[in-house]
């Protein structure tokens, strides 16, 4: 171990390539720093003595100064990596290739990470070359150095416990990394589904609250037939429920793993008993039923499930974005737009127009959807670019999907808490629009005929009075019958409370 007197090596740069200082990871550039020396097949390299990561991570930090989003920004991925390593350690102990002493400290180190410790040590950027090898190496080193501490040794004294020979025993990146990212996606997807369900219930609650409020429906942005505001919001809930169902269907496919396949799916370096043991332990540790893929060669190279998840997530995002478009339209104005509903005022909307309030919450969720659409294109391109027995681009697939899952989860939460829960109906505006709408004439066509109804609609639009007044004034229908036909229950398609209406013969057209 040596003490340096100059600036510590900087491993991270900003998005535009300028070196940056990271509090908690990089020491003050002007302060001395204690370093340890580690070696690999390429030679020696100094590593911060207090770092749990080692030389393989250090090289990756220098090689991939691409993104400031470290693995630690995806805690579910860090936890999933630790769970895979813990399951592997237990399987290796059972088959006799890992001593009880080494197993115990590796297991404890993994459990600490699962419990939330040492996450800040996963400093490597999620985007990297090497098909995730650097991520696997980083996990191996952090677990090994914590295990060495538990054994009473210094970090880096790998002769006592090795990141590769012990922590990575019976494994390769090519089965560890895809298994871990699938498990991380399951964890993140479960959180998204929880938030999605809460948002659905929020829309359902508004559907019940607005159940008796009549409004004008619209098709192609033109006035159509009446409906209730409650029906509109209930429809939002129903369409979101469909996406919960589709996203839930993806989880069992994510639980198909290739642990034990090692490098390309042949199982080289793994005991024949290992695959079933590690599958059983990962099921126990994660709480999800894991299934070993029937064809491990195919499973190692195939990334189809990631396209399925990304595409399903895109579908959900697009539909949620459409709902946000509707909320912005329905609340537009408030004086010169539709102005049918009122969104909660969250912040001042203009630096020049006093009193202006913008629909910022739906707008930000729209932008989440745009990002997810773009991420899906990235996943598609990366999946297509795989070659032969491995896809080298799983890191960008991981980065894209994990970001989409996180942003979608946060988008659902902020839409619910900061917007939907506080929406109110502009009842006076809605009543006035329904009363003056010619769309109600559609309900009268079985009684007066399409041609007569169309003529009345044009006359009403020209300012000749309301449809109700014109029908009664022309003697085309009795006032009592008009009242029944144009009741809110009838107009909105709700089960009628006015009794059956006997259809009179349609008057002959002149």
Automatic annotation (TrEMBL):
<dbReference type="InterPro" id="IPR022761">
    <property type="entry name" value="Fumarate_lyase_N"/>
</dbReference>
<dbReference type="GO" id="GO:0006531">
    <property type="term" value="P:aspartate metabolic process"/>
</dbReference>
<dbReference type="InterPro" id="IPR051546">
    <property type="entry name" value="Aspartate_Ammonia-Lyase"/>
</dbReference>
<feature type="region of interest" description="Disordered">
    <location>
        <begin position="1"/>
        <end position="33"/>
    </location>
</feature>
<dbReference type="InterPro" id="IPR020557">
    <property type="entry name" value="Fumarate_lyase_CS"/>
</dbReference>
<feature type="domain" description="Fumarate lyase N-terminal">
    <location>
        <begin position="43"/>
        <end position="374"/>
    </location>
</feature>
<dbReference type="GO" id="GO:0006099">
    <property type="term" value="P:tricarboxylic acid cycle"/>
</dbReference>
<dbReference type="InterPro" id="IPR024083">
    <property type="entry name" value="Fumarase/histidase_N"/>
</dbReference>
<dbReference type="Pfam" id="PF10415">
    <property type="entry name" value="FumaraseC_C"/>
</dbReference>
<protein>
    <submittedName>
        <fullName>Aspartate ammonia-lyase</fullName>
    </submittedName>
</protein>
<feature type="compositionally biased region" description="Basic and acidic residues">
    <location>
        <begin position="24"/>
        <end position="33"/>
    </location>
</feature>
<dbReference type="InterPro" id="IPR000362">
    <property type="entry name" value="Fumarate_lyase_fam"/>
</dbReference>
<dbReference type="Pfam" id="PF00206">
    <property type="entry name" value="Lyase_1"/>
</dbReference>
<keyword id="KW-0456">Lyase</keyword>
<dbReference type="GO" id="GO:0008797">
    <property type="term" value="F:aspartate ammonia-lyase activity"/>
</dbReference>
<feature type="domain" description="Fumarase C C-terminal">
    <location>
        <begin position="441"/>
        <end position="491"/>
    </location>
</feature>
<dbReference type="InterPro" id="IPR008948">
    <property type="entry name" value="L-Aspartase-like"/>
</dbReference>
<dbReference type="InterPro" id="IPR018951">
    <property type="entry name" value="Fumarase_C_C"/>
</dbReference>
<dbReference type="GO" id="GO:0005829">
    <property type="term" value="C:cytosol"/>
</dbReference>
């Amino acid at each position: 171990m040596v003490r340096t007197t100059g600036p510590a090596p900087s491993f991270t740069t900003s998005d535009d390539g300028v070196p940056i200082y990271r509090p908690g990871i990089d020491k003050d550039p002007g302060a001395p720093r204690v370093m340890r020396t580690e070696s690999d097949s390429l030679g020696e390299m100094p590593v911060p003595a207090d770092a749990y990561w080692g030389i393989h991570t250090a090289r990756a930090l220098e090689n991939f100064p691409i993104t400031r989003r470290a693995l630690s920004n995806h805690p579910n991925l860090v936890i999933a990596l630790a769970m895979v390593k813990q399951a592997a350690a237990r399987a290796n102990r059972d088959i006799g290739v890992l001593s009880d002493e080494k197993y115990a400290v590796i297991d404890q180190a993994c459990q600490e990470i699962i419990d939330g410790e040492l996450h800040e040590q996963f400093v490597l950027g999620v985007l990297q070359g090497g098909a995730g090898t650097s991520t696997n190496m980083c996990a191996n080193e952090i677990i090994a150095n914590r295990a060495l501490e538990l054994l009473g040794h210094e970090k880096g004294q790998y002769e006592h416990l090795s990141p590769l020979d012990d922590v990575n025993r019976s494994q390769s990146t090519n089965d560890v990394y895809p298994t871990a990212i699938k498990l991380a996606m399951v964890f993140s997807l479960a959180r998204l589904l929880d938030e999605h369900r809460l948002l659905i219930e929020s829309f359902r609650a508004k559907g019940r609250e607005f159940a008796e409020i009549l409004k004008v429906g619209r098709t192609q942005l033109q006035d159509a037939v009446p409906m209730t505001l409650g029906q509109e919001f209930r429809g939002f809930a129903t369409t979101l429920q469909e996406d919960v169902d589709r996203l839930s269907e993806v989880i069992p496919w994510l639980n198909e793993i290739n642990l034990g396949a090692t490098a390309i799916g042949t199982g080289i370096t793994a005991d024949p008993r290992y695959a079933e043991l590690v599958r059983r332990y990962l099921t126990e540790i994660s709480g999800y039923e894991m299934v070993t893929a029937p064809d491990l060669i195919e499973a190692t190279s195939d990334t189809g499930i990631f396209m399925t998840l990304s595409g399903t997530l895109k579908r959900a995002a697009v539909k949620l974005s459409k709902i946000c478009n509707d909320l912005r339209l329905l609340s537009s104005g408030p004086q010169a737009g539709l102005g049918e509903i009122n969104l909660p005022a969250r912040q001042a909307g203009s630096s020049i127009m006093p009193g202006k309030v913008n629909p910022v919450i739906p707008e930000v969720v729209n932008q989440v959807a745009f990002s997810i659409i773009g991420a899906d294109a990235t996943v598609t391109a990366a999946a297509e670019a795989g070659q032969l027995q491995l896809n080298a681009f799983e890191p960008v697939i991981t980065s894209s999907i994990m970001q989409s899952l996180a942003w979608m989860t946060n988008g659902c939460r902020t839409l619910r808490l900061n917007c939907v829960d506080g929406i109110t109906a502009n009842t006076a505006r809605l009543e006035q629009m329904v009363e003056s709408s010619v769309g109600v004439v559609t309900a009268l066509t079985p009684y007066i005929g399409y041609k007569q109804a169309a003529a009345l609609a044009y006359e009403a639009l020209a300012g000749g009075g309301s449809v109700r007044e014109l029908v009664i004034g022309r003697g085309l229908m009795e006032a009592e019958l008009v009242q029944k036909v144009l009741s809110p229950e009838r107009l909105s398609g709700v089960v009628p409370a006015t009794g059956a209406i006997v259809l009179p013969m349609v008057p002959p057209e002149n």
